[in-house]
Specification:
- The structure holds 2 protein chains of 2 kinds.
- By secondary structure, chain A is mainly alpha-helical.
- Chain A has a single domain, classed as ABC transporter involved in vitamin B12 uptake, BtuC.
- Helices cover about 70% and strands about 0% of the residues of chain A.
- Chain A is built from 12 helices and 2 strands, in the order H-H-H-H-E-H-H-H-H-E-H-H-H-H.
- Chain A is globular, with a radius of gyration of 20 Å.
- Chain B is α/β, with parallel strands linked by helices.
- Chain B has a single domain, classed as P-loop containing nucleotide triphosphate hydrolases (Rossmann fold, 3-Layer(aba) Sandwich), CATH 3.40.50.300.
- Chain B is built from 10 helices and 10 strands.
- In chain B, the strands form 2 sheets. In chain B, strands 6-7-8-3-9-10 form a 6-stranded mixed β-sheet, sandwiched between helices. A 4-stranded antiparallel β-sheet of chain B has the order 2-1-4-5, covered by helices on one side.
- In chain B, helix 3 runs parallel beside helix 5 and helix 5 packs parallel to helix 6.
- Classes of the chains: A mainly alpha, B alpha/beta.
Chain lengths: ~300, ~260
């Protein structure tokens, strides 16, 4: 257990944490703002990586490839959204159906189970080789940090617009939203598209970073995203009230997750157990609000007049 | 203003839980009518309001608001014409959003939601003024989250949101039933103030016969999916609880069993 090994691994953890942070911000949009647990993301992450790498292999510029990934993600989100609203399938099941379908689509995009991209032959935006010993403007950590700040800025603006406010109202109380003339179905589809576009962008960056896209790269992504959201809220929830800061907290949450992961790996845990560990941690954190209200709060009587009348 | 022609609605058709909640109901409201609706549980009061609001499509019949056929319009499109306050104070507002954000959503009812700023700074003065008239001190708490407000405050705010942009028709679905008596009286007072000030055409469901008699210019009673009584004009002005019970027995041929409706 050489502490130097841990320190050497930390910049990589920050870079990975930031890239997954984009994905976690996407999860935040569905899970916290729309109040939907969207399982599409497990498939969308790979779709983003696959589209990006295949487009770059065919000679496209990295920015065009990222845009392609973004649009592919939005399309996947739209499918889930339509299954949910137009076809009336419960949100979780809609996400699972799209995710399953995406597995085949991802295989077809790549032609096989994985596709590599060589950092020496292609002009990548981010890579694990660009962490140390490169000029600062090529440093992956800086680039992804800038991307996140820009994304948070755009999302902060968007959720302050009339449309963005109506989307927040849809997630908070869709009865009220419809009573105020808001097309809640449209907003749900839009939110899912936005979320999955971000997840696919994250997948595109992740594919470049690790140098390949793999059909299994998104397995359990939703859990990592939720972990980042929950850790961010637990650590920064009391001090970050502004919406932009709360999105930033999700990004930090993701970095903390990868820090802890590195430490756990450094301590020598069997890496086969990592996903089990992640699942357990997320399950416990998700249970905390329920436990709090069940075991640590005094009973409050509500709607006294109504209950007395009934 | 409102014309309902022979609407019917059956829930869970073809199952053991089949319930015909509305049977051929017709009702016409004149401009400025303030109609109170009473009836026992399952009489079809809320179903009628939900049918007007478009929560689900009706099986038969036609609904016209201000001369326009809205029978086939989805709920969010009908919202242009309607202001609604629900029984549950949690239902009418977005708890995680601020007071001013809720009001801004309501002000834009019927407008397309664009990428313009969700609240323009010049709206805030108007919100403060409107909130001050509620007399609850909310005008100093524009950015407070609505989830922090009491049930009565939320109901008063919902009422304000429903009328901020003048609706063709105000639908109040037992909006005071979940409040304590003192708060309920205050919210009803606010309701009267707003309805009279803006001359709103209003349908108000209540469980309380005294409230139904004391408010509005017309009273209808529902039972078993029908409108069984319709009292207006001079007759409504001089109506007493005894009159109403007597009329109910006459029309329905049974005694009014639900003492809740009297004691409410």
């Amino acid at each position: 257990m050489n502490i130097l090994n841990l320190f050497n691994a930390l910049p990589g953890a920050v870079a990975q944490g930031l890239i997954w942070g984009i994905m976690a911000i996407g999860v935040y949009i569905t899970f916290r703002i729309l109040d939907i647990a969207d399982l599409t993301v497990d498939g969308t992450l790979c779709t983003g990586g696959a589209v990006c790498i295949m487009m770059m292999q065919s000679g496209q510029n990295v920015w065009v490839a990222l845009l392609g990934a973004l649009l592919a993600g939005a399309a996947a989100g739209m499918v889930t959204g339509l299954l949910y609203t137009f076809m009336g399938i419960p949100a979780i099941l809609s996400g699972i159906l799209t995710q399953l379908g995406l597995y085949s689509i991802n295989l077809k995009i790549m032609g096989k189970a994985n596709q590599a991209i060589n950092v020496d032959k292609f002009d990548l935006l981010v890579s694990l080789r660009y962490i140390k010993g490169v000029p600062f403007y090529k440093n992956t950590i800086l680039i992804v940090a800038v991307v996140i700040v820009i994304l948070i800025g755009v999302l902060y603006w968007f959720f302050g617009t009339e449309l963005g406010c109506s989307l927040r109202a849809t997630g908070c109380n869709d009865n009220m939203a419809r009573a105020q003339g808001i097309n809640t179905n449209f907003n749900k589809v839009l939110g899912l598209m936005l979320s999955n576009a971000l997840v696919a962008l994250s997948g595109a960056l992740l594919g470049q970073y690790q140098g390949f896209a793999d059909v299994n790269m998104g397995r359990g992504a939703i859990v990592i995203g939720l972990a980042a959201v929950i850790i961010g809220e637990a650590v920064f929830g009391r001090i970050f009230h502004n919406f932009a800061l709360r999105l930033l907290a999700v990004g930090f949450g993701s970095i903390i997750y990868y820090f802890v992961l590195q430490i756990v790996i450094w301590m020598g845990i069997d890496t086969d157990l990592l996903k089990l560990l992640s699942a357990a941690v997320v399950a416990i954190f998700l249970a905390i609000p329920t436990w709090k209200s069940r075991y640590f709060s005094k009973p409050v009587s509500r709607g006294g007049a109504k209950n007395a009348a009934d | 203003m409102l014309q309902i022609k022979n609407i019917s609605k059956t829930f869970n058709a073809g199952t053991v839980n089949e319930k015909q909640a509305l049977k051929n109901v017709s009702l016409t409201l004149e401009n400025g009518d303030f109609v109170t609706v009473i009836g026992g549980n399952g009489a079809g009061k809320s179903t009628m309001l939900n049918a007007i609001a478009g929560v689900w499509p009706v099986d038969e019949g036609q609904i016209m608001i201000d001369g326009q056929d809205v029978t086939k319009l989805p709920e969010y499109k009908r919202a242009i014409f309607l202001g609604r306050v629900f029984q549950d104070p949690m239902n009418g507002t977005a708890a995680t959003m601020g007071i001013e954000e809720n009001l801004a959503l309501a002000l834009r009812r019927g407008n397309p939601r664009t990428l313009k700023k969700g609240i323009r700074s010049n709206e805030r003065e108007a919100y403060k003024e409107a909130l001050a008239k509620l007399g609850l001190g909310l005008e100093d708490r524009l950015t407070s989250k609505v989830g922090l407000l009491s049930g009565g405050q939320r109901q008063a705010l919902t009422l304000l949101m429903a009328t901020l942009k003048k609706p063709k028709l105000l639908l109040l679905d037992e909006h005071t039933a979940a409040l304590d008596p003192k708060t309920a009286a205050k919210v009803l007072e606010t309701t009267d103030m707003i309805v009279n000030r803006d001359k709103l055409t209003t349908l108000m469901i209540t469980h309380n016969m005294r409230d139904a008699i004391a408010h509005g210019n017309r009273l209808i009673m529902m039972m078993d999916g029908h409108i069984i009584l319709d009292i207006k004009g001079e007759e409504k002005k001089h109506l007493t609880v005894e009159d109403l019970l007597h009329k109910f027995e006459e029309v329905s041929g049974e005694e009014f069993a639900s003492d809740k409706a009297i004691l409410g």
